[in-house]
Each structure stands twice: as C-alpha cells, then as structure tokens.
Amino acid sequence: MSRPLGCLSTGGLVAALLTLLLIVGVVLIWGGTIFSPGPLNAQAGDVPLKGVYSHAETGGNCAACHPAPWEGASMDNRCLVCHGAVREQLGEPTSLHGALRAADEARPCRACHPEHRGAEAPLTVVDAFPAFPHEVTGYSLQGHRRTADGDAFDCADCHGPEMAPFDRQSCLTCHRNLDAAYVQSHVADFGTDCLACHDGLDTYGASFDHNRLAFPLLGGHASPACRECHPAARTITDLRNTPQDCFSCHGADDVHKGEFGRDCAACHSTEDWAQVAFDHDRTAFPLTGQHVTVACWRCHVGGVYKGTPQDCFSCHGADDAHKGEFGRDCAACHDTEDWAQAAFDHDRTAFPLTGQHVTVACRRCHVGGVYKGTPQVCVACHADPVYHRGLFGTDCAACHNTTGWQPARFDRLHTFPINHGESGFSPCRTCHPATLTAYTCYNCHEHNPADVESEHREEGITDFQNCVECHPTGREEEGEDDD
What we know:
By secondary structure, the protein is mainly α. The protein has helices at residues 10-30, 75-82, 84-89, 96-103, 155-159, 169-178, 180-190, 226-229, 236-240, 246-250, 296-299, 312-316, 362-365, 428-431, 449-458, 467-470; strands at residues 475-477, 480-481. The protein has a two-stranded antiparallel ribbon with strand order 1-2. α6 packs across α7 (180-190). The model is unreliable at 478-483 (pLDDT under 50).
C-alpha cells in the first residue's frame, strides 16, 4: 500500500502556486507599502535631490533607502547618495555633521532623522543626541543654559520646531526683550551680526574687561563710548586691528601741526590732555645746567619747535666776545653750568701744551688777545740768541724741548765727541766758525794747512780736508792725541 504525498500532492502544489501568484500580484499592485511601518515625511527641501523634494515623493520605492541584504551597503550609504552636502560635512570635524560623527562615529543617520512617522512629523529630532558638542559650530551654549525666566534652553528656542538653521535675528529678538535700549545702542555701534563677535562664552560680552588687554582704559579713555575708538567695527578682527597709538585718534586735533612728531605720550597723559608735562631729556637735546631755567620761547622763537638748532653758536653767537676767533665750537671751553667759567683745553687744539708751555700765561703767546692765526713754530716766540748768530737755523726742536730750554740736547745729531780737547766742552764756534754745515780743526790744533797737506801727502792721503773721516773720535789711535 503506497503512502500519501501530503503537501507534494497535486492539490498541494496547486495551492502553493496560487498563493505565490497572489503575493506577487499584491506586491505589483501595492508595492513596498505593504511592508511599510508608516507613511514617509513630506517635508520639502529647497532643491530636488535625485528628482524628489521630500521622502514622501519616492513613491514607495523602498530600495531608495533600504539596500538589499546581498548589496553589502547600509542605510547611511543610501542617505549620502542623495545628501551630498552632508557627505562633505562628515569629512570636516568643525562642521555640524562632522562634529556629530566625531562625537559618536557609530550613530546612524536615522538616530536623529527617524522616518515612517507620518507626513507631518518632524524629520529631525536633536533631543535624541543630548551630548551634542555645540561649541564646534563656533558658538558655545555655556552662556545660554537658562532663559531670562530661569527655564532651561531648548534647541527649538533658537532653531524653531523644525530645527531650521539658526537665524541670527533670534539674538536681537531675545535680547531686545531683556534690554531694548542697550541693544539699540549696541546695534548702532557694531551692527546686527552678533556672532561676528560673540561666541557664547561672554568673551566679549558681560564680563569683558578692557583693562586686561594690552591697551587698558585709563583716565580720560575710560568714559568715551566704544564706537569712538572702534568706528565701523563689525568683527573681532576689526576690534583687534584698532590702532593703539595716540596720534591715530588725536592727530586731527594736533595743534602742533606735526612739529613734535607722533609720540603724543611724550608730553600728554590720559589723566588730563591739557596738562602737558614735557620732558626735554627725552629729546635729542636734554636740558642741563642753566638751560633748565631758560624760558621755552627764548630758544623756540615764534613757537617753532621742529628744526630748532642744537649748537651753542646759533644762540650765543651774537654775544661771542671772541669775535669768531675761536670758531663756533663753544663747548670746547664753555659748559651749561656757568658760561663765564671757561675751561679751555689746549690739548684739543693743533698745538697741545707740554712742559714749560703749560705754565706760560696766555697773553705771552696770544698778544693783544688775538688767538686765531697764532704761529706754532718755536722761532715765533724764541728768537735766535746772539751766540747762535744764525748758525743753527729755525729748527729749535732739533736741540731744545719744552721740558727745559737748557741744556740743549743736540748730541743725537752730533757724531763727533763734543768734549774733544783738553778744556772739555768747547763752544760750537770753535769748530763751526761760520756755519753748522762746515767745520774746521785748525782753530785748536797747532798746525797750519800747509803742514797738514805736506804730512798727509807723504802718507799718500789726498783728501786731508775731511779730518773726521779718518779721525771720527778726534784721535789718531787709541790713547794718543792726533795733533
């Protein structure tokens, strides 16, 4: 007896085929909606992505978001196929989606953008990401934890119920309710782009202290409104680029017309601009001695300061008792402590005083008070004495020096012993009766030219006039007189 075929019977196979045909027909007629957990969101974008403005317009094409199991792709991959701008943000850590990826790399798109909740349901649910690092967007929520009423801030307070991109007018809307007068003044000074300066940390807000910067506000600088120093500033960069020198603000009111340069702080202070405390010692011409008490107008005639001469003669030349004989370098003798007490340093001239010249009275050389053109040679003051009678010329320094006029030291020029003879030192004229360039030995030795000539010719000597050539020491041989 044979066993029954069961589901493999002819009837069972027919039933299975009819069921399969029914399923295929339903799928073809109703598509994937038969498996959908709910209708898709109908929120429309500004531009179409892959031909549709909203998820609802995909027409039940489940494969647009749900890849088949054998494709090896994820739903996040399908999201990025359409949302290219988001794909680019994921590679930038400081962007919105880049920050989310950095905070939780495994978090899928649908965690913040759930679907199949109906056409009117919000497509973005930020509350699903409570630890969102808002500071990476360039604005910290540290200063916005509580509203003015004390309630905790909600994302929708700034981004609206649809989580739209932040509208910067939201700042003005809230803060006008807090202090309308201040906001009106602040907007007039710095414009309406609050985020250009504010970062949510109150860095440039309520706790801002200008005195912590490189330019503290002191004295008269404490009262002017911000816009007076920061005109047309709209960003942090504009504020930081504000000049910090006095002249940039006060140059237009410079009553000195630029004569004192641009360093206003050399005379003025922030305590009282009108009270000037000029320190002349900070200039190229510090005031010393009697110059300290001289009235400014005496040197700065007509109120002219720039280009005022700094040499003595420009002021004192008209009173020069020397009539220009000493030149224009007054400081060579005078100083600012006492003009009348001159301390002339002769060593700074072309004729420094040495030896006995130091004690000689000025009038002995500068006869009649004449200084300019005074001769600097010895013979101008020391005339040739009678016993020289022109023998030695005008080069007194060849024998004499300023330490003592006598004794004269001419031995460095005289090679012949000057103590030659029985009487010791002989007068110069004994050997040089007419001139220093010629000498004779006949005035001492007991022989005459004829005897000398006869004797020397016998010895074969023809040049017997130049005695020193053969008798350099005055002697014929050691220990024997040559006469």
